[in-house]
């Protein structure tokens, strides 16, 4: 139900709640980022959200009330916030209550949703485990390093190896992929590998630095146990290039080169130390697969030809503090009502799809929290408890609260997600509605 007619009031009520999830579409003017407080009248519950500019944006308030709820907004007096629309979801994953929109073809919606469920329900999942966010390198082109206040500040993985092994074996994925940070900083990783059920395929990306101790691997990891091991080459961080290549050859002499790969980002600082052709020649001589990744700017001011993240917006979001009751008037009393319809788009990457992320593909962080996708990990780190419902943890694999989703996620942001695992989930995508052509609001 769209409550735009009541939004000019300081207080407004949602009757006949369908779920606890209330989507609020807004526009921010006057600052790149700010914060807004939602107050649940009656219970006194308050929730603070970081908000940002850039057209229609979205937050989702989660009420503890049953039946009906009365809400009020507070915001910074220096900014203008325009409430575009408010929707009460039918369920956690029913973004904007889209299943009940008049412009959504219900038959197409239900058919496509069921197709995604049927195509993936009996498949074992793929797990991507961020073993730790810590890294022994400091590459200035790494998205985790340039946002270190979000990622590098988290505590180390200290859980006992037996607990991790038990959790992974219980889920029984088709593949468990170790990444990070640098996964070999976890001192028990070789012991863990020995405890994972043999029916689970193992793969890893590593920087192959000092924490990857070859003698320990040779002693504890059988030749045929690991699947693909990808060693990422970071010339600016490698103290001795020749020693690095010697280490590669020692590894491939022991384990073979068939399931080993080198990878390098063609950042100018990298190729100035190890030219791309030098790396290609080395791999060709030793029958090693090579991937050269195109350098993509993390922030927009690094390369004007690439669509990086807005650095000013990111910096503003990081600096935003929670608001004070004494400093801010009611948002609703100054809100500007908008009747603007959602824009039409023909860009396929901006149209919503049903995606089996959270069911077929699950991302696990260093504390055991499970997420639908890499975007969920990123936004959950940035926005904390007030990220959108499908970006929050699905539970924790260590304490038994994790369950795979049995419904597909509606995704409408794949146009800006460079970390989308489309190789695993893309073939299962179905349009939310074959005829839907609206550009949905961006999260955050």
Which characteristics define this entry?
alpha/beta, 12 helices, elongated, eight-stranded mixed β-sheet, 444 residues, disordered N terminus, 19 strands, TIM Barrel, four-stranded antiparallel β-sheet
Percentage of residues in strands:
15-25%
For the secondary structure, the number of strands is: 19
Task: Summarize the main sheet.
Answer: 8 strands, mixed
Shape descriptor: elongated
Describe the structure.
This protein is of the alpha/beta class and 444 residues long. The chain has a domain at 127-314: Aldolase class I (TIM Barrel). It contains 12 helices and 19 strands. The chain has helices at 106-120, 143-146, 148-151, 161-171, 189-195, 214-220, 241-255, 268-271, 276-285, 311-319, 374-383, 422-425; strands at 11-15, 21-29, 33-41, 45-52, 57-62, 68-75, 80-88, 126-130, 175-179, 201-206, 226-233, 260-265, 289-293, 353-355, 361-364, 370-371, 409-411, 430-431, 442-443. Strands 13-12-11-10-9-8-15-16 form an 8-stranded mixed sheet. The protein has a 4-stranded antiparallel sheet with strand order 1-6-3-4. A hairpin with a 5-residue loop joins strand 15 and strand 16 (370-371). Helix 4 (161-171) crosses helix 5 (189-195). The chain is elongated and about 70 Å long. 35% of the residues are buried.
């Amino acid at each position: 139900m769209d409550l735009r007619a009541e939004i000019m009031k300081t207080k407004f009520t949602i009757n006949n709640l369908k779920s606890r999830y209330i989507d609020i579409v807004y526009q921010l003017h006057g600052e790149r980022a700010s914060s807004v407080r939602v107050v649940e009248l009656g219970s006194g519950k308050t929730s603070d959200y970081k908000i940002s500019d850039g057209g229609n944006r979205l937050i989702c308030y989660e009420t503890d009330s049953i039946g009906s709820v009365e809400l009020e907004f507070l915001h910074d007096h220096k900014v203008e916030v325009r409430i575009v629309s408010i929707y009460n979801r039918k369920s956690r994953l029913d973004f904007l209550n889209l299943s009940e929109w008049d412009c959504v073809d219900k038959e197409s919606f239900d058919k496509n949703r069921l197709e995604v469920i049927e195509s993936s329900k009996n498949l074992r999942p793929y797990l991507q485990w961020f073993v730790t966010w810590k890294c022994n390198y400091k590459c200035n082109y790494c998205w985790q390093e340039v946002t270190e206040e979000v990622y590098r500040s988290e505590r180390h993985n200290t859980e006992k190896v037996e607990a991790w092994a038990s959790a992974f074996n219980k889920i029984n994925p088709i593949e468990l992929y170790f990444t990070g940070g640098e996964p070999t900083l976890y001192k028990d990783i070789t012991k863990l590998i020995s405890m994972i059920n043999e029916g689970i395929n193992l793969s890893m990306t590593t920087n192959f630095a000092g924490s990857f101790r070859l003698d320990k691997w040779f002693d504890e990891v059988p030749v045929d146990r690991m699947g693909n091991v990808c060693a990422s080459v970071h010339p600016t961080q490698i103290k001795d290039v020749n020693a690095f290549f010697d280490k590669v050859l020692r590894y491939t002499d022991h384990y073979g080169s068939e399931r080993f790969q080198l990878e390098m980002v063609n950042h100018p600082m990298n190729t100035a130390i190890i030219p791309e052709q030098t790396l290609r020649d080395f791999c060709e001589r030793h029958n090693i697969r090579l991937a050269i990744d195109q350098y993509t700017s993390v922030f927009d001011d690094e390369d004007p030809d690439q669509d990086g993240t807005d650095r000013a917006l990111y910096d503003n979001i990081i600096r935003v503090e929670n608001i004070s009751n004494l400093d801010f008037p009611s948002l609703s009393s100054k809100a500007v009502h908008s009747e603007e319809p959602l824009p039409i788009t023909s860009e396929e990457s901006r149209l919503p799809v049903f995606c089996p992320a959270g069911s077929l593909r699950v991302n696990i962080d260093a504390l055991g929290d499970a997420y639908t996708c890499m975007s969920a990990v990123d936004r959950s780190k940035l926005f904390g408890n007030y990220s959108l419902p499908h970006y929050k943890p699905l539970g924790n694999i260590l304490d038994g609260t994790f369950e795979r989703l049995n419904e597909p996620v509606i995704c409408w942001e794949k146009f800006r997600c460079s970390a989308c695992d489309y190789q695993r989930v893309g073939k299962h995508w179905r349009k939310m509605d074959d005829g839907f052509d609206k550009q949905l609001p961006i999260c955050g």
